[in-house]
Amino acid sequence: MNLGNCRRAGALIAALIAGPLLAQGTETAFGADGADPDAPVEVTADNLSVDQETGIAVFTGAVTISQDTMRLSASEVRVVYTSGGDRIERLEATGGVTLVSGDDAAEAERADYEVEAGRIRMSGEVLLTRGQTIVAAERMNVDLDTGRAELSGRVRTVLQPGDAE
């Protein structure tokens, strides 16, 4: 188990020990800094496969996509283009997905990013870290325009007491 997986497992165990925060869901902010949607996008990966017929490009092997203050990494990212092939419709990331925006970070098994709508849906053991706060859930929906994140499906967290001086 690598260091990242150890940290994730430790954080998840701490969240589970604390018990459920809410059974149905909760809201929080994510990426309040707001990445610049017009900034250049940089992609690095071990491999790239492009299918001109379907309009799908598949990046595999240590994929990292960066734009301004936002970074997405995963084992595989499928890039689906619009029918005209001139714009990206959505990104489908699978396998150890990590999304970082400013000081916020989220991990999951899968993330689907609807580019035009500015929405990201993460699923599969979602772990959100905001400073000292850690929240675990089954799913998280993020609206990148507002920075609003909604977590659902057995939400768990550890509430940190304030510093009393």
How many alpha or pi helices? 1
Low-confidence stretches: 1-25
- The proportion of residues forming helix, as a percent range, comes to under 10%
Task: Tell me the series of helices and strands, N- to C-terminal.
Answer: HEEEEEEEEEEEE
Number of DSSP strands?
Answer: 12
Oligomeric assembly: single chain
Shape field: elongated
Mean pLDDT: 78
Distance between the termini: 39 Å
Largest sheet: 12 strands, antiparallel
Strand content: over 45%
What integer value in Å does the Rg equal?
A: 17 Å
Structural class: mainly beta
Sum up the structure in keywords.
mainly beta; 12 strands; elongated; 165 residues; twelve-stranded antiparallel sheet; 10% helix; disordered N terminus
How would you characterize the overall build of this protein?
There is one protein chain. The protein is mostly beta strands and 165 residues long. Helices cover 10% and strands 59% of the residues. It is built from 1 helix and 12 strands. It has one helix spanning 3-18, and strands at residues 20-22, 25-29, 41-44, 47-51, 56-67, 70-81, 88-101, 104-114, 119-130, 133-143, 148-152, 155-157. The longest helix has 16 residues, at 3-18. The protein is elongated.
